[in-house]
Amino acid sequence: MLNVDEAQLLTEIKKAAIKNAVEYGKAQESAVSGKVLSKAPELKNDMSKLHKLVSTIVNEVNSMGKVELESEYKKYEVEFTSESKEKKEKTAKPKLELKDIKGTFITRFPPEPNGYLQIGHAKAVLMEQTFARKYNGSIILYFDDTNPEKEEQRFVDAIKEDLKWLGVTFDKEYYASDNIGLLYKYAETMIREGNAYVCMCDAEKMRSGRADGYGCVHKTHTTERNLELWGTMLSRELDEGTATLRLNGDMSAENTMMRDPTLFRIKYSTHYRQGDKYAIWPTYNFNTPVNDSLNGVTDAIRSKEFELEDELYFKILDMLQLRKPRIHTIARLEIKNNLTSKRKINELIREKYISGYDDPRLVTITALKRRGILPGAIKEFALRFGMSKTNSKVSIDMLLAENRKLIDKNSKRLSCVEEPMELIVNDIPESEKNKRVKLHPLADIGYKKYNLNSVFFINTTDASNLKIGDTVRLKGAFSVRVTGVTKDGMTGNFAGDEMGPAIQWINKGDEVACKLLRIGDLLINDKFNKDSLSVTNCYVEGYSKSLENGEVVQFERIGFFKLDDKSTMSFLSL
């Protein structure tokens, strides 16, 4: 981080401008400012000063001839090379490989249709798709839908829509609930072989028994008695919560997952897919290993949080003498100061802190899509963690940075003025009143045209740094020499191409009222941040009327925004 000394700051700006000019043919103020801020983020406290210095130096560098620019570059070439090498090492992607992959490779993505996909799901499915392609294998979409109380068709539809948007395609699709009848047969096999028993304990007694490591009286039931009780469960003679089918495991096992976990339970709720056909439903720990084996899965990629369940996964398959897939463990992806818990998100929705699962402050796929995050950015972000097993919470800034790399290539550059005040410019020649300005400094995506009058809106913050006699450049137009400053506005005279810091402007009569919605951290210290969404009323130039909902633009010297609602001209920050 820089010690923000004036001379050192000017040097850093010049170096950034020279490097940017050599790499892209012309230095861009936004890129230079971003580079300097990455080294000295404390400069955000005085952005107007930084913009003024950057504008002046960028203009100087862009006026250099090719020979002079190359000569200046050579002065810092060793430093530039070292920085590039360091950046490459930091951003290098981890090698995506799995151990012991031989022959057929079939994996699966197993969402439960009780909510919306979030960034952690995206990491898992994109990883699975990558490996399926790498090993010339296939990937299955497996809906783990054996909880009728919470699952709905609308979530199935939403999950499929999100996966399609992410660019994930599947070779096969199946539902756990379609195999319930077959799972009953495997349950009966477990009972007959003494590997499962029907327990009549309530939930609290089962919990305490498993925690303390002691078995209940039902564990000693004979096979005949267990089959009889299992029959009463299937025939709907028992109420919910009065009986479960449990694994006959080891109550003294060090791994508590092996202490007689529940395999089936009674639920009379109507199922979104099966209706009232079934009342006895398998748990994830039973249906997943069996369905994986029966559907040909060779490799399951699971979050580290399921690591203790791996022993149970293989135990059930051993008991049923079914083929065992390989399990590969990865760390869960979590975003700092955000939520993925459905329960907690639903609480915020009920309390009206957020609008829904597509609220742009969330990291659900539907929210990221609404905000303007591209699928390619999510993929680059998700895969950069590789097969690491180290759990950590990462900043969403990493995802936003990946997104900016993609949207920068063709996002239109527009002028936006916050806290507008008037600037009246005298003596503008007729030849300067019609302007044609590129919509992007590099990409060939068209022009915006102006028919200027003498009154402009400029940012009050920019104006506060000007005094009589100063020269300022209206970016893309011409320079103005300040002749008067009052609390209500400024006046100036046309100054042609004189040097001066560039500022944003909008010609009076061409302004469109808009709202900038800036997105911050959803949580602070695990509590809802009431300032996580701020709204600024401002002006954007008239070209904005031609934008479509969902279009991403860069408001120069402010940042990237997506048009969220054209009817209110509301833009979301990116």
Task: Summarize this structure briefly.
This protein has 574 residues and is of the alpha/beta class.
Task: Report on the architecture of this protein.
- This protein has 574 residues and is of the alpha/beta class.
- It contains 17 helices and 29 strands.
- It has a seven-stranded mixed β-sheet with strand order 12-27-28-29-23-26-13, with no helix packed on it.
- Strand 1 (106-109), helix 6 and strand 2 form a beta-alpha-beta unit.
- Helix 1 (6-24) packs across helix 4.
- The protein is elongated, with a radius of gyration of 31 Å.
- The mean pLDDT is 92.
Characterize the largest beta sheet: strand count, sense, and whether it forms a barrel: 7 strands, mixed
Largest beta sheet: what is the strand line-up? 12-27-28-29-23-26-13
User: What is the CATH fold-level name of the largest domain?
Assistant: Rossmann fold
Q: Segments where pLDDT lies below 50 for 5+ residues?
A: none
CATH homologous superfamily of the largest domain? Answer: HUPs
How many distinct folded domains? 4
What do the pLDDT scores average to? 92
CATH architecture of the largest domain: 3-Layer(aba) Sandwich
Radius of gyration: 31 Å
Note the total helix count.
Answer: 17
Set out the fold topology.
Elements: H1 6-24, H2 29-39, H3 47-62, H4 66-75, H5 77-91, E1 106-109, H6 119-134, E2 138-143, H7 153-166, E3 172-175, H8 180-192, E4 196-199, H9 203-212, H10 223-234, E5 244-247, E6 262-266, E7 280-282, H11 284-294, E8 299-303, H12 310-319, E9 326-330, E10 333-335, H13 342-350, H14 365-371, H15 375-383, E11 392-394, H16 397-407, E12 412-414, E13 416-418, E14 420-426, E15 434-438, E16 447-451, E17 455-459, H17 460-464, E18 471-474, E19 479-485, E20 489-494, E21 502-503, E22 505-507, E23 511-519, E24 523-524, E25 527-528, E26 533-541, E27 552-555, E28 559-565, E29 570-573
Parallel strand pairs: 1-2, 2-3, 8-9, 10-11, 12-27, 14-20, 18-21, 23-29
Antiparallel strand pairs: 4-5, 5-6, 6-7, 13-26, 14-17, 15-16, 17-22, 18-19, 19-20, 23-26, 24-25, 27-28, 28-29
